[in-house]
Amino acid sequence: MESLKQTPLYANHKKLNALMAPFGGWDMPIQYEGIIAEHKWCRENAALFDICHMGEFIFEGDIVKDGMEDIFTFSVETIPVGRSRYGFLLNESGGIIDDMIIFRIAENKVMIVVNAATADNDFSVIQGRLKGGSFRNITDSTAKLDLQGPESRNIITKIVDPSLLNLSYFKFTKVKILGEDALVSRTGYTGELGYEIFLPSKKVAELWEKLLTEPKVKPAGLGARDILRLEVGYSLYGSDLDESITPIEAGLENFVNFEKEFIGKGALLDQKKNGVSRIKIPFKTNSRRSPRHNHKIVVNGQEAGIVTSGAFSPMLGSGIGMGFIKPEFAIDGKNITITDGKLEIEASICQLPFYSDGSVRN
Amino acid sequence: MERYFTKEHEWISVNGTTATVGITSHAAEELGDITFVELPQVGKSVKRSETLAAIESVKAASDVYAPISGRVTSTNETLETMPEVVNESPEESGWICTLEVENPEELKGLMNAEEYKAFI
User: Fold this and answer.
1) Range B2-112: architecture per CATH
2) Residue B13, burial from CB neighbour count under 10 angstroms (0-12, 13-18, 19+)
3) Label partner for A114 (CA 20 to 30 A): which of A42, A238, B48, B107?
C-alpha cells in the first residue's frame, strides 16, 4: 500500500493531539477536542479546517477553443471572472468521475478544485480531454484552509484583509496573505458563513497559527465536517457519489447544463427520458440512532436500497442519512427501515436540507 | 464496594447483592462522542456475556455485555436524553443500570482495577 501523504500542517495537528486517520490517501485530522464539540463550535463561532489534501489544477488558455467548455456538466465560459461554479466531470455512461468547483480567475485562466482521492485521475482525464492551453497540477504547492462559522467574517476581515467584508456567496478575490498571493472564496461545505483560503503551502502553518490565536476560532477535523455537510444535504464523493452514479440518480440535475455539450450527456438524456432504477433520498430516523454507510434500506419488508451517508445530527437530535432507493418508494414522508442485518432503525423519507438555519448567506 | 472489569470494557461495582454496571473510561474514549444509549428493560434477567445495552457514538455502534448474570433493577434514564454523560463521567454518573446479583461466584472471573489497567 502506498504510504499516506501528510499536509504541511501535520506537525500542527500532532501538537494539538489530533486523532489522525487515513482519508483519500492522506493522513488527516479527524478530531481534536471532539466531533460534537467541534460541530457546535462551527455552527456558533468559527471552525478552522485543514483542507490541504484537496487537489488544485490551473488551466490557462482559450476556454472554448482549447476544449475546457465541453469537459464538465456546466459551462465554464459563462462563469464571470471572480466567481465560481459547482458541477461534475462525467464518464461516457454519465457516471460521476468527480465533483468540483471551478474558479474563473481571469478570462483565460481557471482553477479547478477537486477531491483528494480522485485528484490524480481527474488530472489525467481533464488533460486527455483538453485540445490546447496549459494545464498544471498545483496541489503540492497550494494549501487550503476553510474558515467556517457565523464569526468567520469578523475573523477574516481582521486577520486577512478588511476588504473581504463585502465578498458575497460564491465569489472570490485575490488578496495578499503574509506577503504572498492568495485567493479567498466565500464558499464552504458546512452550511455556515465561511471562506475557503488558497495560499502557498509554505505559508499555511503561519496562517493556521495566527487564526488560532483568535478566541473565536478553534480547529475542527473531518469528523465534524462530515456531520456539518450532511446536515445541509451536501454529497460526499466516495460515499454518496461515485463513477457508477449519475447526477440524475443523485438528484443533482441542477448542476447539469443540457444546453451545452459534455461527455456523458447522452446517457443522462437517456435516463431523463426512460427513468432511473434508483434515486437518492434523504431520511431522518425516529430516534437518536444513526444510520451508517452501507446499511440496507427496507420498505414493506423488502430490500429497497442502500445508505450512502449517515450520522447523528446534533441540530435535529436524531439520526439523518442519505441513500439510494428504488424510485417507486421515493415518496416524501414514507416510512422506511434501516438495517445492518441485526439492528432495525425506523426512519422516514424527508426533504433536504435537514438543517436550514445556518449562516451561509448572512 | 468492590469494582471489577471485563475484557469487553465494562465495569461492575458490587454492594451486597446489588451491582452497578457501566463502560470504562477507556471504552468511552475509544468510542468518541456517544450519541445514543439503549437501556435494558427493568425486570429483565440476563445471563453473563449476554447483550445488556447498546451504545452508539459518532464512530460506531457497539453492545454492552452483562459482566455477570442477574436481573435489571434500575436504569440510568438520564442517558436517554443525555447520552453524553457517559463521555463526561463513564465510571460514575454515566452508569447504565443496576443488577441484582444472581451468583457472586461469577465475579471471580473478572479483573480488578490493576489487572484491567495492565490489560488495556
Assistant:
1) Beta Barrel (2.40)
2) middle
3) A42
